[in-house]
Amino acid sequence: MEKKRTTIVLFSGDYDKAMAAYIIANGAAAYDHEVTIFHTFWGINALRKQEDIKAKKGFLEKMFGKMMPRGAEQLGLSKMQMMGIGPKMIKHVMNKHNALTLTQLINMAQEQDIKLVSCTMTMDLLGLQQDELIDGVHYAGVAAYLADAEDGNVNLFI
Amino acid sequence: MNIIKTLDVKGLACPMPIVKTKKAIDTIASGEVLEVLVTDKGALNDFTAWAKAGGHNIVEQKEDAGVLSFFIEKA
Q1: Closest CA–CA distance from residue B11 to any residue of chain A (Å)
Q2: Interval B7-17: pLDDT, tens
Q3: Which secondary structure element, helix H or strand E, spans residue A125, and what is its range?
Q4: What pLDDT, in 10s, does the model give residues A37-91?
Q5: Which fold has domain A5-53+67-157?
Q6: Are A23 and B15 an interchain contact pair (Cβ–Cβ within 8 Å)?
Q7: What is the interface pTM, i.e. ipTM, of the complex?
Q8: What domain range includes position B38?
């Protein structure tokens, strides 16, 4: 039997939306789907390494790099950000309810062989380089995404 | 009932119960039964749907003091 397929475009760089994307992705993998998460624009920030990676960049790229969150746990909330208090509160509640953090969800996704893809075109725009992203990420564009999505049983844009 | 394995995912939140159950069911053979203990409120619907999609058979389910037990026979 051919495996079913789920694809998710993660456009948002909000912590809560990225969590939703990764929970659905991990659930789909448990449903025995082949799963692809295609990260574009702000969604790529979820894949950034936390440490400051020295890379050769122009002025604007450096500025972008500084202004955008570096890694999953630095992302803000789509609602109730409250200058950073919101994320602290929600992480406290998540811990209480034994919910996985976004970082743990990403690790779980990699463990379940979910294909994490980063859009190379947006990486150029935002001045992000491959060294700055976590290991195991694939690099591709719209055609590669569509190749997965056209066979997709579940395709989401978050 | 040929219960070969028990998985305790009490206290774990979505999507962990299903993710762990999937991992556990991959380790047993067809016809063998996996027992899963879970407290997640969504589990009743989640496990029913998940088992159906995979063709597995929930032979028995029960609830005791907020803990749901599923006995899942692998397809």
Answers
A1: 7
A2: 999 999 999 99
A3: helix A120-126
A4: 999 999 999 999 999 988 889 999 999 999 999 999 999 999 999 999 999 999 9
A5: Hypothetical Protein Ychn; Chain: A, (3.40.1260)
A6: yes
A7: 0.86
A8: 3-73
